[in-house]
């Protein structure tokens, strides 16, 4: 392990090189605290939250742990509204709503603001000074990065390619989360219009480690201690796990999501129809419908998500759970239902056995 990697591990307070992914809508303060309290780095995702809700989440996490935790934000480019395209999208979805006796929304809106353009959220995080802040979908302005670094906040950012990793390194951010194609949830690509290389996690880790002197955290398809050991062997300083924690009782995944994860066969699909950006989801009714749609018809992220969330709510009222954003990685078949603390202890034992 390089000196910079060892320093990052120390600053993150890690007793074991395990990070819980900051899954917006799934990770909770209770989960984050449980992971941190068992030697890893817990995380909460506030990318879709209002400032006051995000601040309350930070307070709840702090009340449950004395250790550091990661607060994740979305730095996507702001959506470009297109009333014509959005109206056409709602027309395409109308038969789905009708199936559940519901009407689609009259219009769609940008349901949350990019952190890169949200001065109030930036001010709140700087005032709260969490131990770690991570960026997804890109980076904020350099001035925001420097401001947070000056406050002693450890900064991480997601890269899905070597060019993105270079930009992160040039910004002075402390660590790179190398998100492989296997990862669940939203692809962290900076520009969704650029061709995605779809690199596997370990291939991406090796590319970044070979070229850049910045600590790398492997993410994507990692479910067990043996997987973590493999990532460390490829040069990663630590591993980040998301899907592995969805079935934990501390997660906010609903019953349909949990059942689809544990009993649904584990097939996943990358789709943009739910939110407007590519994201890996358990194969369900929504992804099946999405296969018939042109990617060019989907409104910008997160405007499309406004329709997706409304459809899911209508479907759930009618007893159908197959239209949710059931994000999961390609390791979904290996998900294990136990508490976050128990899972952390198991992962640590498996890692020790794999390293022996």
Write a brief structural summary.
By secondary structure, the chain is α/β, with parallel strands linked by helices. Helices cover 40% and strands 13% of the residues. It has an eight-stranded parallel beta sheet. Strands 7-11-10 form a three-stranded antiparallel beta sheet, with no helix packed on it.
Structural account:
This protein has 356 residues and is of the alpha/beta class. Helices cover 40% and strands 13% of the residues. The protein is built from 13 helices and eleven strands. It has helices at residues 3-11, 29-37, 51-64, 83-99, 119-128, 142-150, 162-171, 201-211, 225-233, 255-263, 285-290, 303-317, 340-355, and strands spanning 18-20, 42-45, 69-74, 132-136, 154-159, 175-179, 185-186, 216-219, 238-241, 268-271, 279-282. Helix 3 (51-64) runs parallel beside helix 5, helix 4 packs parallel to helix 12 and helix 9 packs across helix 13. The longest helix is centred in the first third of the chain and has 17 residues, at 83-99. The radius of gyration is 19 Å and the shape is globular. The mean pLDDT is 97.
Q: Number of helical runs?
A: 13
Structural class: alpha/beta
Q: Please tell me the overall pLDDT.
A: 97
The gross shape turns out to be: globular
Distance between the termini: 17 Å
Round the Cα radius of gyration to an integer and report it: 19 Å
The largest sheet, given as strand count, sense and whether it forms a barrel, is: 8 strands, parallel
Question: Unreliable runs, pLDDT <50, ≥5 residues?
Answer: none
Main sheet: which strands, in order across? 1-9-8-6-5-4-3-2
Q: Could you tell me the number of beta strands?
A: 11
Order of helices and strands: HEHEHEHHEHEHEEHEHEHEEHHH
Strand content: 5-15%
Helix fraction, binned, reads 40-55%
